């Protein structure tokens, strides 16, 4: 992969290390067929990177940062392409400044938590997925579907005054009114077409990543919105599940990830099949260094 006219030449699958917004600006317009991603959730986990998405002091700053990223994604997406966005909800912290580790889920522990957002009360459900969905709709995206990811084996919550949550949202957005969508790929063996509630269990793993996509969750997204050889983007690549599914389905992919530890996890899962490029925070392509060759 070499730079062409200040943009990356997208002739192979690639993993890029660095800030998503900065790297997206190096991707040519109208070059991506499908985007499948799950950005870090606001105020829920410490993902271990400086200036990371999700650590903003206010929810408005978080939504603004995501809006800027998805505006760039809109630019790089083809006119008939689709965006699949997974996002979970959260509750206000009640101005508690930290969260102790849960014995069953140590990753929930946080040393710093944001204040209760203005206009909300302690213990309020924020409604973050819909806030983001309406913001992207305002930015020009077509909001085409809200899908419930039902987790039959979701981790129990230590609450006694409301039902335990066992779902998240996946929003399907299009760039244009008309777009590529293969509805036949969503028909199961019994002839029934997939509907808007997807039951996908969480898979156990021994990897040092707290929020790994199940392959069964994103396979229908990629199958229904791409053809063989098409290019799929995940700007929050994490442990690399989007790349793993793309390799199984004979699609190319671009993964962008800020945390080098997650890159290591992804390469283990991908059997080091991808090239890796590190973006040093410099404006010119002289600062790009290839770390691993396929």
Summarize the structure in words.
The chain is α/β, with parallel strands linked by helices. It has a single domain (31-236), classed as 3-Layer(aba) Sandwich (Rossmann fold). 21% of the residues lie in helices and 22% in strands. The chain is built from 6 helices and 12 strands. The chain has helices at 20-24, 59-76, 128-138, 215-225, 241-248, 260-269, and strands at 3-4, 7-8, 14-17, 32-37, 77-87, 142-150, 167-174, 197-199, 231-234, 252-257, 275-279, 288-292. The strands form 2 sheets. Strands 8-6-7-5-4-9-10-3-11-12 form a 10-stranded mixed sheet. Strands 1-2 form a two-stranded antiparallel ribbon. Helix 2 links the parallel strand 4 and strand 5. The radius of gyration is 19 Å and the shape is globular. The termini are close together.
Summarize the amount of helix as a percent range.
10-25%
**Biggest sheet architecture:** 10 strands, mixed
Question: From the alpha-carbon coordinates, what is the Rg to the nearest angstrom?
Answer: 19 Å
What's the CATH topology label? Rossmann fold
* Domains (count): 1
Number of helices: 6
How large a portion of the residues is in β-strands, by DSSP E? Answer: 15-25%
Low-confidence blocks of residues: 106-110, 280-294
Envelope shape: globular
Provide the CATH top-level class. Answer: Alpha Beta
**Global mean pLDDT:** 84
How many strands in all? 12
The main sheet orders its strands as 8-6-7-5-4-9-10-3-11-12
């Amino acid at each position: 992969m070499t730079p062409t006219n200040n943009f990356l030449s997208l002739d192979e699958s690639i993993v890029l290390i660095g800030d998503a917004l900065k790297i997206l600006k190096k991707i040519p317009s109208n070059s991506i067929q499908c985007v499948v991603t799950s950005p870090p959730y606001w105020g829920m986990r410490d993902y271990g990177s400086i200036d990371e998405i999700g650590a903003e002091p206010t929810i408005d700053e978080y939504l603004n940062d995501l809006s800027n990223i998805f505006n760039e994604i809109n630019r790089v997406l083809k006119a008939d392409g689709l965006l699949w966005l997974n996002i979970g909800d959260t509750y206000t912290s009640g101005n508690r400044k930290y969260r102790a580790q849960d014995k069953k889920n140590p990753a929930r522990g946080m040393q710093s938590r944001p204040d209760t957002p203005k206009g909300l009360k302690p213990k309020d459900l924020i409604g973050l997925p819909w806030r983001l969905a309406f913001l992207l709709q305002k930015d020009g995206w077509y909001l085409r579907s809200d899908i419930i990811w039902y987790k039959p084996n979701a981790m129990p919550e230590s609450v006694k005054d409301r039902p335990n949550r066992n779902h998240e949202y996946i929003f399907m957005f299009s760039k244009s009114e008309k777009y590529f969508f293969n509805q036949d790929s969503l028909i199961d063996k019994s002839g029934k077409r997939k509907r808007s509630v997807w039951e996908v269990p969480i898979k156990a793993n021994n990897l040092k990543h707290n929020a790994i996509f199940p392959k069964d969750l994103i396979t229908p997204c990629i199958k229904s919105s791409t053809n063989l050889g098409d290019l799929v983007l995940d700007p929050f690549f994490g442990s690399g599940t989007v790349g793993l599914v793309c390799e199984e389905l004979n699609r190319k992919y671009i993964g962008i990830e800020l945390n080098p530890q997650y890159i290591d996890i992804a390469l283990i899962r991908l059997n080091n099949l991808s090239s890796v490029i590190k973006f040093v925070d410099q404006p010119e392509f002289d600062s790009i260094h290839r770390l691993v060759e396929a």
